[in-house]
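Reply to thread "Modeling small-molecule complexes from scratch"

Following up on the discussion above, here's a worked example others can learn from. I took a protein sequence and the SMILES for zinc ion and predicted the complex. Inputs first:
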Amino acid sequence: MDYLSADSLPWLGGAQTQLRSALKSLRLPHSLLLLSAPGLGAELLVNWITALALCESVGDRPCGVCASCQLLRADSHPDSHYVRLEEDAQQIKVDQVRALIEALTLKSYRGGYKVGVIEGAESLNANGANAFLKTLEEPTADTMLILIARPSHRLPATIASRCLRMTLQPPAADVAVAWMKAHALAEPASAAKSSASDASWEAALALAGGAPLLALELDTAGVAALDADMRESLRLLADAAVDVTLLAERWMRANPGLRITWLEKWITQRVHAALGQGTSHQSAEPVRLPAALLKPKIRALFDLLDAARELRRLASTGMNQQLALEALLLGSRAALAK
Ligand SMILES: [Zn+2]
């Protein structure tokens, strides 16, 4: 388990400081709900928190050298338990949750903390969630349960209300770009990326919703090509010069997720411009006025934004998105009309 990389992500510093002082005052939370969009390093932070709780050094923790830290690094610490969605599964299985709870009720092997982590807690079904309610209500001593979930997903209130909540925010764009450039320089494999311009870093970052780790995975050259392709697609749509079914097929074949994200961002900018707000922060939500006050053009843009978000929601369920995308593209003609 990599628990030291969290130190190299500057936007995690606030959370680390908070947890360090909680540890000093012997008040580590029994249950922590960490809300984070993908690509912000939530998993690395949770590894670091695990190491913080399990490290046996009397000095700064995690020390990286004590027996506990070494066991963690080798993924063989008996008091660290990790649950995530199994491959090809739609939900975290209730058996996985039960096994975790059982492990956490046992005595600590090394006489210190026990840490249980559930990654992707939004994929718990009702039975899975109910299974560990008792654990949340009556935590055993020196036990820490950490749930990682997307901010947009709603966990049952019975669970969320019993956890200390922490939300990771994307860093400011300049901090993110500086970090991405430094990181690309340090990676020999991405020599091509390290020569990319600031503008292409910013484009990748915007497409990744401000999440630097996700943006780093995007090929900056590919981002520029996608950008050009999307603009051309929208121009053809506005001129009714393209078959919607064929266009939807083409989008679904190559980078559908990125295209929807691109479209959401593009629509948001149009809404801002139409409302006269300019383009403020990349993820800022446009102010939604009562429908009656909106010009038809803006209303059409909002409808399109809703459709794009619904499509993204569909994507996370694994359902067929082709028809929904065709409907969205048809509907977009109204919004695109001059
Ligand atoms: Zn240690």
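What I'd highlight from this example: The longest strand covers residues 143-149. The mean pLDDT is 86. Questions welcome below.
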